[in-house]
Specification:
- Helix content is about 10%, strand content about 50%.
- The protein is mainly β and about 140 residues long.
- The chain has one domain.
- Strands 1, 2, 3, 4, 5, 6, 7, 8, 9, 10, 11, 12 and 13 form a 13-stranded parallel β-sheet that branches.
- About 35% of the residues are buried.
Amino acid sequence: MFREKKGASAGGAINTLLGDGSRFKGTIECEGTMRIDGKVDGKVLARDSVIVGETGIIKADIMAPNIVIGGKVTGNVTAESKVELLPTAQLYGDIQTPILAIAEGVVFQGNCNMKGKVEPREKVKEEEEEIEVKKIKG
């Protein structure tokens, strides 16, 4: 289901590939660049880039420094650096990023916040863990 592939359209090596016809449910994390051409239901986190191919169907929040969408995403998208929506992209959710590029033909339904710096996903993850601990302690 996952394999390494050299040469990414986003400018670097793809460390994780979820191919067309594959499905993943839950939280998927990648230390490098991830390309998704299959289906994901849950949460997507990457330290480099997330690329959603034309056949990708995502029902998840996506957090990464750079996000390129060419498929269908239902969920919120948070990028520390840039979000790029390709002509075949469909995004139903909110965007938070300092830089946004939208091609002609994109379907986007949601809100966009481009104010200030977006917190790195590690800090957001730490805050989520703190909230979870507080809930457990009562």
